[in-house]
Specification:
Bound molecules: S-adenosylmethionine
Pfam family, one: TrmK
Keywords: Methyltransferase, Transferase
Number of helices: 9
Number of strands: 7
Largest sheet: 7 strands, mixed
Protein name: tRNA (Adenine-N(1))-methyltransferase
Organism: Guptibacillus hwajinpoensis
Radius of gyration: 19 Å
CATH topology of the largest domain: Rossmann fold
Oligomer: single chain
Number of domains: 2
GO molecular function: tRNA (adenine(22)-N1)-methyltransferase activity
Length: 236
């Protein structure tokens, strides 16, 4: 496989895969990520999971073309149902909303037995993953944020461990802020981070303007105001 087929976003995901792992890439589409990992001798084998027929067929073709049919099993199915417990050490799920990624993980908790690392790239709502996975004792160990083709992407890496550790010493509003924007990303606040949260602030301000003109929406208004205030603090 030509490396140029893989986006910078997925290359960043690939960099977090420990050498020698067995990986499941759920929602693999063309299976570019597992093929790239095999090509670079980063993994010993993979499962590429896909729920939809079109992307499943693309994955089958790409794996054949790349010559990895013996190492990469392409399986059709919903979320983690394509896996047997203990089959892989690492799961990657990229390019979907945070809510869908969370639901995929919650729908197959028994398949996470023996998994050491989750590498997740939610297109939106990363906070839903930080919140839920912390409760499930997955410890956030790495975060990245990058801009590619005018879009901003977050990558979150969780290891089986102490889910509360990254948030030790934070409570109340400060904890909400950490969960929203990411405790590791908050330390650096790089350009992509600042751009993302400036855009999110503008969105909340537009919503509040339109809510001011409507009636009977005070609950929604209070929620958006709370988010706006948190974001202002994130940016400060
Ligand atoms: N992971 C690739 C990437 O990051 O470029 C593809 C992302 S694509 C936008 C999302 C893929 O996830 C689609 O191919 C879709 O068919 C698949 N998908 C969505 N829900 C899924 C589920 N519940 N189980 C498995 N695959 C799913």
């Amino acid at each position: 496989m030509n490396d140029k087929l893989l986006s910078e976003r997925l290359k960043l995901v690939a960099n977090y895969v420990p050498v020698g792992s067995r990986v499941a890439d759920i929602g693999s589409d063309h299976a570019y990520l597992p093929c790239y990992l095999m090509n670079h001798n980063r993994i010993t084998g993979a499962v590429a999971g896909e729920v939809n027929e079109g992307p499943y067929q693309s994955a089958v073709s790409q794996v054949k073309r790349s010559g990895f049919s013996n190492q990469i099993a392409v399986r059709k199915g919903n979320g983690l149902e394509v896996l047997s417990p203990g089959e892989v050490d690492v799961i990657t799920i990229a390019g979907m909303g945070g809510q869908l990624i969370r639901d995929i993980l919650l729908g197959g908790l028994e398949k996470l037995e023996g998994v050491k690392r989750l590498i997740l790239q939610p297109n939106v709502a990363a906070h839903l993953l930080r919140e839920r996975l912390s409760d499930l004792n997955w410890e956030l160990v790495e975060e990245s944020i990058i801009e590619e083709d005018d879009k901003i992407y977050e990558i979150l890496v969780f290891d089986a461990g102490n889910g509360k550790k990254p948030y030790e010493g934070f409570d109340g509003k400060e904890l909400q802020k950490q969960l929203l924007a990411g405790p590791i990303l908050m330390k650096e606040k790089n350009d992509a981070f600042m751009k993302k949260w400036q855009n999110e602030l503008k969105k909340r301000e537009r919503i509040l303007l339109s809510l001011e003109r409507a009636e009977g929406i005070s609950e929604k208004e209070a929620q958006v105001k709370n988010e706006r205030d948190l974001i202002k603090e994130v940016l400060s």
